[in-house]
Each structure stands twice: as C-alpha cells, then as structure tokens.
User: What shape does this take?
Amino acid sequence: MRLIPVLLLATALAATAHAAADTTLTSAKQQLSAGVSTSKPDAILLARAAFAALQNDNPKDARLACWIAVASWRAVPLLQSNDPEQAKRVCKEGIAAADRAIALDPKLAEAVAIKAGLQGLSVTFNPALGMSLGGEMDESYGRAQGIDAKNPRVALLKAINTMHKPEFVGGGAKRAMPQFEKAIALFDADGANANGFDWGRTDARIWAGRCQLKLGDASKAKTYYEQALATDADNVWIRQVLMPAADKALAGKSGK
Assistant: This one.
C-alpha cells in the first residue's frame, strides 16, 4: 500500500520535469526565432546553448540534437564576416549534432537535410570540399525526401542547395525556383509542422525572392519579400538588405 503514494509522487515529479523541459524548449525556440529576425548571432548561440543543455538532460532525444544543428545553421552565415574561426567551429559542431540526431533516429528527415545544409556551409571554409561533398549532399536530400516527401524544410534546404550549385552539375537559380515554389506550397499546406519543428516559413519566401532577383525579376522578388514580412514583420535582413536591393534593381530598370 505504501508503494502507491511513492509511485504517484514519482509520476507527478516526472510530469513536472517534462512540463519544465517543454517550457524551456519553447523558450529556446522563441529565442532562436528572435535572433534570426534581428540578425543577432549571440542570441542564436544562446538558444543553441539552451538546446544543448536540454539534450544533455535528454541524451536520447534526437529532436533536441537536431535543434542544435538548426541553430548552428542559423548562426554560421551571421558569424562568417566577423569571426570566421568561430563560424567554422559552430558549423563543425552543428554537423556533429546532426550526426547524433541521425544516429538516434535514422528516419528523422529534418536531421538528414540540416546536416547536408551545414555541409554546404562548410564548403565556404574549404572550397575544395565542394567536389567531394556535392554528391553526398545530393544523396542526403534525396534520402530526406524519401523519408518525408511532404516536409517543407527538406524541400527548402534542397532548393537553397540547388541555387548555389553550378549549372553544369544541375544547379542554378532557374532550376531552384520551382523547388522554392514547392517548398512554399508545402509550408502553406495543412500539417506543415512535424515532430515539433516549425521553422522555415519565412525563409522559403526570402529565398524565393533572392532566387527571383538572380533571375532578373525584381518585382517578383519584392512580392516574395513582402509576403515574408507578413510572417516576420521585424526581420532585419528583409527590411535593411533584401528589400532595398529589390527596390534598387527596380529603380535601375525604370531608369533605362
């Protein structure tokens, strides 16, 4: 009879701990989102540290390892200009986190795709890796889509990779644009969020706009940026960099 109160107490404590972890995860995700919106790598790294602390407490949770990788992918481009060595280190750690996530859950499409995305960033530190990693990354994106064909973040990461690849190996903006459109459609579909991953909706339209600008259509680029602002009204990158670039391109065309 005495076991019953003990078991009830243990159950209550476990439920409390789980609720606290969920609250911390939500807070870390919000901090990550705010860091991305304001283009502040320090805030993103703090969110990454929070994900890492959660994973230390829950070492078998593949999703937490994947969130570390996602935060790393967010931080690296912002760190590159001011602290390339830190950017390189964060990229390497992000790949390791993705590997942990894949080892824990080989069917976690998010982890497979974000590892390939981080590998793409790693090429900026060592361009010679491009030839050796290109095939591996393509295989990873194919594998991720095979696991979850309706995952919008997988489609987005694959489209970004396509846009950055040389045309002679199947890349370029022209080939990437339909992939961005597919990613946007998947984000707009029901059930776009899976396994607690809910990032990328704004990114899909940002990158679609960048792709359209590469293709020479500043008007369509601006439309995508305006759509992106509808989901992230204070995004610094859009307001201070991307939108002015589109306006400048439009002004240049009108002046011809």
